[in-house]
Amino acid sequence: MKKIDLHCHTYAPQENSSRCLKEDAERISPEEQIEIFDKLNVEKGVILPLITAKHPDGLAAVENCRYIADKYPDRFSWFCNIDPRAEGFDEKTDLGEYFGRYKELGAKGVGEITTPLYADSPLMDNLFHHCARCDMPALIHIGTTPQENYGIVDEKGLPRIEKMLKKHKNLRIIGHSAAFWCEISENGYPEDRNDYPKGKVSDGRLAFLFREYENLYCDLSAGSGSNAMMRDREYAAKFLTEFADRIYYGTDMTGKSQKFPYVFDDFLTSLLTDKMISDVVYEKIVYKNAAKLLGIQG
Ligand SMILES: [Zn+2]
Question: Does the pLDDT value for residue 283 go beyond 80?
Answer without folding.
Answer: yes
